[in-house]
Amino acid sequence: MNQPDSFDGLSAFLAISKRMSIRQAALDLGKTPGSVSQALQRLEHRLGVALFHRTTRKMALTEAGTNLLLKVEPAAQVIATGLEDAAQSAKAPSGTLRLIVERLALPHVIEPLLPAFREAWPNLNVDITVSNRHDHFVSEGYDAGILIGSYIEQDMIAVRLSRPFQWAVFGSPAYFKAHGKPAVPSDLVRHECIRFRRPEKGDIYRWEFVENNESVRIDPSGPFTVNDGELMRRLAVQGVGLIYSSTFHTSRELADGTLESALLEYSPGNDGLYLYFSKAVRNQPKLRAFIDMCSRVLAI
């Protein structure tokens, strides 16, 4: 004996619950009102209970219908997402992947990754905008961005692209020889500091530390204010003053000995470089291909 289909009539039930109209539900499902009505009747007959109160003018869920909707609707959304994911996975990456990338990511991510990505997906184009201003990420139609983790909006999905790094104070060996190294954050009032104006916000970036398990923010003073990270580091190398940056931004200068760190033990924590994107595009084949290549080439 054939077992009844447990899902028979559920799509009709969900569509009617959304519209509270058999006619409107039929339009949503691309079926006739008669077939939708019959599907609902079969479901009610199988369950042995009425799911809707019906009058000539309106419909309303019964208590049994409300309880069924509460249990079935979330499961239906999970099933729909699973079907969408399966359909997306079957499609080859194509079109153009639009990225907005902060300049720091160019030598560490973009330059080592693009040749391999091009070889793997020759029919996929990549459009890269280099900018530290990501406040219009969604409205300007980017598929994904690359940014420091602490700057990314909370509702975005983020994938780490770099090893963890720390924020601290940096200066040249000559500067530290002449003026000494600050031992605690409050020592900075006696030092020349190069201030950084954030291009995306226009404000002066405050230097952040953790001291005695409490957050400490310092508004540095100094004769120079810049809005370019590369210029800021070059000035520090020349011994003009101290800067607040990360071990990632200054990795080249730390390696060649032109900058040294200070107050690392007061760092507010580990940060990183991340690829980020919205939930709406997370299953795009072109984006998935880029993420896979990042994990393969960068080996984080």
TrEMBL record:
Residues 5-62 form the HTH lysR-type domain. The keyword Phosphoprotein does not apply. The keyword Protein biosynthesis does not apply. PROSITE patterns: HTH_LYSR (PS50931). GO terms for molecular function: DNA binding; DNA-binding transcription factor activity. Belongs to the LysR transcriptional regulatory family. This is LysR family transcriptional regulator. It comes from Pseudomonas brassicae. The lineage of its organism: Bacteria, Pseudomonadati, Pseudomonadota, Gammaproteobacteria, Pseudomonadales.
